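Re: [ENG-882] Designed sequences occasionally contain unexpected residues at chain ends

Forwarding the minimal case from QA. Structure tokens:
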């Protein structure tokens, strides 16, 4: 079908919750996408940090195909091997406790909030400005962005936010606090790296008052910053950590990873999900971990991230570059980012996105090479 036909179907039958670009993608390989007319695009958005190994990665595709041929779904009242093996892998490469599965990042955050609240009944939850933790009610209540919260008020009580400074955060945590929820690198608000002082202050305040420190690594985890987990950059270890997006490289899967202290807070009946931890999504995630945990790949993410950041800083009109690894944003003085996203797509066949009026965000596959970085910069330079 032509794009115009799809747009007509959307207008007639699809809730208008998304502002789509006028392109229909039909195929992908690596960092490349092809539309219905056969035009080739360079993907530096990866479905919002989801296809971090690129499109149609052979190891992931094989794992999915083999598992689909064996067993698609039985639910969580029975055992399947991929889910148990993935939990073991996630625990051993991070917090050393136990794992609870979800279908998305916001659901993983909901599970984390429930664990914290059960561990400290009626406790409050502290987050920081510019944070984004999802669109379900608990996660939305922890997302201090008026434009996202206001249409859906009243929100869940017991949530409050402070400025993203060590002093403000330390002053907000007390004996009533159940959890502090932070993104080590804030993605949706424009790739703001929380400084180590703030993270250390959060850890100290949680230790002092018996609260859980939750790191939302839904976007910044799994190699995106050049380490397997973003918390490794600071050395500050959380009590609970959420993961999703890149975990399935396109299949919906999320995970709450608990430290030993919080591993057994939830009991049967406390929380659940029909599809979470299914064998196909977990088989895909096992293949993803095999690739992303390679030290050589992570070193290349750091090197190529530095190369991309340097190139972005040299572009006309760019006033600031932020981020870590291959999670980067650049601000333009004239605030034309949404227009640039559309023009990049239609004129230069480059897929990027904007997180605000002035901010362009780049989330390329972690498997790209130097030529891909240089080509993306060349296309942006031609556009500007």
């Amino acid at each position: 079908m032509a794009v115009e036909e799809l747009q007509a179907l959307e207008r007639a039958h699809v809730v208008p919750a998304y502002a789509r670009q006028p392109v229909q993608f039909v195929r992908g390989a690596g960092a490349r996408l092809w539309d219905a007319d056969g035009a080739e695009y360079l993907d530096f958005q990866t479905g919002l940090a989801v296809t971090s190994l690129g499109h149609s990665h052979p190891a992931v595709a094989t794992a999915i195909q083999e598992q689909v041929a064996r067993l698609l779904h039985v639910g969580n009242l029975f055992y399947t091997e991929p889910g148990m093996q993935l939990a073991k892998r996630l625990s051993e490469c991070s917090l050393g406790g136990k794992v609870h599965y979800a279908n998305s990042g916001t659901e993983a955050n909901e599970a984390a909030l429930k664990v914290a609240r059960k561990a400290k009944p009626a406790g409050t939850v502290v987050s920081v400005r510019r944070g984004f933790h999802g669109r379900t009610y608990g996660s939305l209540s922890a997302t201090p962005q008026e434009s996202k919260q206001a249409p859906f008020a009243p929100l869940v009580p017991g949530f409050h936010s402070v400025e993203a400074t060590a002093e403000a955060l330390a002053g907000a945590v007390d004996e009533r606090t159940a959890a502090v929820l932070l993104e080590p690198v804030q993605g949706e608000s424009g790739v703001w790296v929380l400084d180590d002082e703030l993270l250390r202050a959060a850890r100290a305040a949680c230790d002092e008052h018996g609260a859980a420190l939750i790191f939302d690594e839904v976007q910044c985890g799994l190699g995106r910053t050049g380490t397997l987990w973003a918390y490794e950059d600071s050395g500050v270890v959380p009590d609970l950590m959420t993961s999703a997006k890149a975990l399935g490289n396109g299949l919906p899967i999320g995970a709450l990873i608990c430290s030993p202290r919080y591993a057994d807070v939830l009991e049967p009946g406390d929380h659940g999900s029909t599809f979470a931890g299914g064998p196909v999504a977990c088989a895909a995630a096992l293949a993803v971990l095999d690739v992303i945990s390679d030290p050589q790949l992570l070193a290349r993410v750091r090197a190529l991230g530095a190369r991309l950041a340097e190139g972005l800083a040299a572009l006309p009109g760019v006033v600031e570059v932020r981020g870590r690894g291959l999670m980067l944003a650049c601000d333009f003085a004239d605030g034309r980012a949404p227009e640039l996203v559309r023009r990049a797509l239609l004129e230069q066949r480059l897929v990027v996105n904007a997180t605000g009026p002035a901010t362009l965000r780049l989330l390329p596959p972690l498997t790209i090479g130097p030529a891909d970085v240089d080509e993306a910069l060349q296309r942006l330079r031609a556009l500007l």
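QA comment: On inspection the terminal residues look reasonable. The first strand starts at residue 25 and ends at 29. Proposing we downgrade this to a documentation issue.
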